[in-house]
Amino acid sequence: MEKSKRRTFAWLAGVVLVVLAIVLGLHFFTAQHKGKPAPTGEPVAVVPVALQDVPVYIDALGTVTPTRSVTVVSQVDGILSSVEFREGQHVSKGQVIARIDDRALKAQLAVAKGTLAHDQAVLSNAQRDLARYRDLVKAGSTSQQTLDTQAALVQEQQGTVAADQGNVQNLEVQLSYCTITSPVDGVVGLRLVDPGNYVTTTSTTGIVVITQMNPATVVFAVPEDDLGSIDQAMARGSVTVLAYDRNKKTLLATGSLLALDNQVDTSTGTIKVKAQFDDAGDALFPNQFVNARLKADTLSQVAVVPTRAIQHGSKGDFVFVVNGDKAALRNVKTGPSMGDVSAILDNGVKPGEQVVTEGADKLDDGSPVKVVAQ
């Protein structure tokens, strides 16, 4: 009996100790967590959806081509006596840039003029004789045959004088070729022949290359699928084309669409486009590579969001929209970009809604959020 009482007492004591341990543990846990705030959502930064006009561009890599590029060659054979330009100099049309030794041609021209003067004197004398023979025929003092012979002689001398005049004109033209002038307004390249060299008309190297820099043109290729939108843009009026540097950061010049090629390149499925830049100055250089942006259309007052807010998933693009303290996942159809914003082509977001721009990588649909920055 006494043993049974001791066992009961020991059991009760154990229960009491367990209860005390639980109570002490709960008290310790409560003391540790007392005053701590309830768990909060993920901190995010948001930007409101706005309405904006967004231009639609067709981008392509293009090459700057000069309006005209002329290789200046000599039109007469002779010694290049002087070069009257500096390499890289801007020259005007008609400006003297080189001279050929013209002494031999001047001597030939003097001989030709002397021959012409002689033959003109002979013709004048023959014409006076012809007039006298006509009077003698009327008086019966000479025969008709003598008159006809003199008339034929006059015609012969007239042909000789005409040939002499042609020879003089030809030598004058050849002499003018000894003074070489610029055929265009442009920039002179590097000199290809030094003074003192004998130049010929058969040389393909030339003396220098002159490039007309203004207006500059850019040739680039666009996919044939864009032909429809380009035709529609041309029907509305002048089509703007922007030329950026190779990094697409700096705008070099603004121009307009000049022409489309007349056929599609079947090997690449593209068509060549030429744009003209009237006020490019020195920003565009011949054979320079640039990024051309052709403005095909403008989307009027469409919803735009920061491009960094757009996420990419297996089901397409999406954004997180903040509703109260929750993040809602919205699938969207993105359109063209302008600067740091992108157009949303469907009704995935509405103007004024807040889209997450920072912290979206930690969110899921319905995740609690806390807006910490606008």
How does this model look, in words?
With 374 residues, the protein is an alpha+beta fold. 30% of the residues lie in helices and 37% in strands. Strand 12 (240-244) and strand 13 (251-260) form a beta hairpin. The model has no long low-confidence stretch (mean pLDDT 86).
What's a concise summary of this model?
It is built from four helices and 22 strands. It is of the alpha+beta class and 374 residues long. Helix 2 runs antiparallel to helix 3.
Beta-strand portion reads 35-45%
CATH class of the domain at 44-53 and 300-373: Mainly Beta
Q: Sheet with the most strands? A: 6 strands, mixed
**DSSP helix count?**
4
Query: What fold name goes in the CATH topology slot of the domain at 44-53 and 300-373?
Result: conserved putative lor/sdh protein from methanococcus maripaludis s2 fold
Percent helix: 25-40%
Instruction: Give the topology string: H per helix, E per strand.
Output: HEEEEEEHHEEEEEHEEEEEEEEEEE
Q: Give the low-pLDDT segments.
A: none
Q: Give the N-terminus to C-terminus distance in angstroms.
A: 79 Å
Helical/strand content category? alpha+beta
